[in-house]
Amino acid sequence: EAGVAQSPRYKIIEKRQSVAFWCNPISGHATLYWYQQILGQGPKLLIQFQNNGVVDDSQLPKDRFSAERLKGVDSTLKIQPAKLEDSAVYLCASSLDRGGGSTDTQYFGPGTRLTVL
Amino acid sequence: GESVGLHLPTLSVQEGDNSIINCAYSNSASDYFIWYKQESGKGPQFIIDIRSNMDKRQGQRVTVLLNKTVKHLSLQIAATQPGDSAVYFCAEMDSTLTFGKGTMLLVSP
Questions:
Q1: How far apart are CA A63 and CA A84, in angstroms?
Q2: Please, is B41 exposed, middle or buried when counting C-beta atoms within 10 Å of its C-beta (0-12, 13-18, 19+)?
Q3: Nearest chain B alpha carbon to A58
Q4: With contacts defined as CB-CB under 8 Å, which chain A residues touch B44?
Q5: Binning pLDDT at 50, 70 and 90, where does residue B4 land?
């Protein structure tokens, strides 16, 4: 079974520029998550989708971050404009569950390492 | 790959030793707990989970213990191998998954 795919793996941009990350979850997984992992810390949830609807985006800085999952499969996360403190690894995860708050295992992709100069 | 272990507590063991990694969680309402392993340059990998109605669960070479009274979780790895070297995170689930501070495990041959 193919895992969660993410691209690009690395991205370097200057502050105030825009950047987008892409995620393809495991086939059949209804729920998709975006996490931010700052170096030396655990991942922090940014947004959770169930199919193409948002379940939780309470931790997403909506003034600069946006995410979509239009067809309920792939997802993109965008930052516009980027700040220095956005430097982190952005992880995508997916789980099989079809109900919010379910305890199905989350499977993580390899992440995209963003460096903002 | 870059390290995810900067400024993390570190446990150093010899190959063949048993390892115990501890975690304190904060939310009394959490009812599901997971241990993840994260190698440098990779995403977290599921190791083992436990629900709040249990206090112990065993897998292959790994055991998770849950003490709800003191909100403490531990991961025991038997016969630790160099391939076990990684950062280990506990995570608790209420409505969302919240990760704790990681612990770096270094296994010497």
A1: 15
A2: middle
A3: B96
A4: 43, 91, 108
A5: very low
Residue B82 dihedral angles phi and psi, to the nearest 5°: -55, -35
- The pLDDT, as a whole number, for residue A102 is 54
Q: Is the dihedral of CA A108, A33, A104, B76 positive or negative?
A: positive
Nearest to B77 by CA among B22, B4, B33: B22
Q: Which of residues 17-36 of A touch B (CB under 8 A)?
A: 33
SS3 content of chain B, % helix, strand, coil (to 5): 5, 50, 45
Most B CBs within 10 Å, among A41, A54, A57, A112, to test the B interface: A41
Size of the A and B interface in Cβ pairs below 8 Å:
58
Residue B49 with chain A: CB contacts under 8 Å: 103, 105
Contacts with B95 from chain A: Cβ below 8 Å: 56, 100-101
Q: Is B48 on the interface with A (CB under 8 A)?
A: no
Out of B7, B34, B93, the one facing A40 most closely (by C-beta) is: B7
CA distance B60 to B62: 5
Tell me how far apart the terminal alpha carbons of chain B are, to the nearest angstrom: 21
Tell me: pLDDT of B6 over 60: no
pLDDT, one tens digit per residue, over A33-85 is 999 999 989 999 999 999 889 999 999 999 999 999 988 899 999 999 999 99
Q: Which residues are within 8 A (CB) of B8 and not within 5 positions of it... i.e. 6 or more apart? A: A40, B87, B101, B102, B103, B104
Rounded-to-integer distance, Cα A116 and Cα A81, Å? 11
